[in-house]
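Sanity check

After download, print the first record. It should look like this:
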Amino acid sequence: MKDIKGKNSVVSRIVFYIQLVFISLVASYDSYLAVKLRDTLYSAELNPLGRMLIRMDNGDVALFMGAKMLGTIFVLGILLFLYYYKESWAGAHKVRNWALPVTAFVTLVQVMVLCFLCS
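Expected structure tokens:
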């Protein structure tokens, strides 16, 4: 029984970290494109919050990129927190069960973002 549990634990850990790396890479590629296309980004940006941040920064993308990176780091931190939530803490069994489905959902969203960026 221990071997099976240990293997599942190792596999889930590997999948979790692969997903974190993928989320980070897509966010980095998105930021790269935003900086590369900064001259036309305001007219092409579909996110109203992104447009507002660009407008607040007088047409520059720096504030928008900072907010995007802050958001990405925050989400990655939340995912790590969910994954490593201490077993001894109250309600740990409820939170720990959310880590992998939430990470899978964020990964799926990033797949859709990547498809949009590459289209």
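If your output differs, re-run the checksum step. Summary of this record's structure: Residues 82 and 95 are 6 Å apart (CA to CA).
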